Amino acid sequence: MSVAIVTGAGSGIGLAVAGKLAGQGYKVVVNDFDGTAAEKAAAGIGENALALQGDVSDENDVARMVEGCIETFGAPTHLVNNAGHVHQSAFTDLSVADFDRMISVHLRGTFLCTRAVLEGMLSAGKGCIVNMASQLGQIGGIELVHYSAAKAGIIGMTKALAREVSNKGVRVNAVAPGPINTPLVRALSPEWQAAKAAELPLGHFGEPEDVADTVAFLCSDEARIYVGQTLSPNSGDVML
Ligand SMILES: NC(=O)c1ccc[n+]([C@@H]2O[C@H](COP(=O)([O-])OP(=O)(O)OC[C@H]3O[C@@H](n4cnc5c(N)ncnc54)[C@H](O)[C@@H]3O)[C@@H](O)[C@H]2O)c1
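A: This is the predicted complex of the input protein with nicotinamide-adenine-dinucleotide.
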């Protein structure tokens, strides 16, 4: 049986990933900082889903989340490190607190959740981890130094861990979406959104389900030779 933990699954991309995996028969832990959103998401998905509130940057919350998963569904076979937030600030105005929070949620959160499940996966000789990066971790974003740095860090962590554990049966990959139609992007200025859509080769943003399809592929056996890769559902915005 496949058991996935999806962090930040109360909204947007994580919600779509949780729904997609549950539809494929996975048991899914729907984690979110926002407990009400997690409950609502899990209720919408049905009996294959379990809501577990928790902050991915908090070591105790992460331990509680993994224990809850083991109690209800068994040891996680898949982890999707998706939780995140965005915050725009010119570099000269960027506070230490905002910088630290960005690194803490994205980079420390990815590290803590991975650390909490990896031993079990290594013991089982099988596992799969998908980390949500961003194309801004590849090309940088204006007034998004902290976000871009955190996402580039996630790509680096993905590659390094993939080198360390793939010959022990655990595959680690990343996804670097372009602009996707979620509350996170809708919080950015309307001017930015309109200008961004106009410059995309495809002419429009992706939907959360488009990213969920990429994640589900990486989670599947069809992706058995994908190791340390960063896939790019991005409407053609960045071509590497
Ligand atoms: N939407 C995009 O265009 C886009 C593009 C590239 C990458 N991403 C990344 O995709 C991921 C999901 O973003 P989204 O667009 O679906 O955003 P979203 O705001 O719709 O959903 C993010 C969810 O994560 C939760 N969350 C935030 N901090 C958390 C924490 N510390 N612990 C647990 N949960 C937490 C939020 O409560 C929210 O429900 C993020 O990592 C984001 O950086 C998004």
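The mean pLDDT is 97. The pocket of nicotinamide-adenine-dinucleotide is lined by residues 7-8, 10-14, 31-34, 37, 55-57, 82-85, 105, 109, 132, 134, 177, 179-180, 182-185 (CB under 6 Å).
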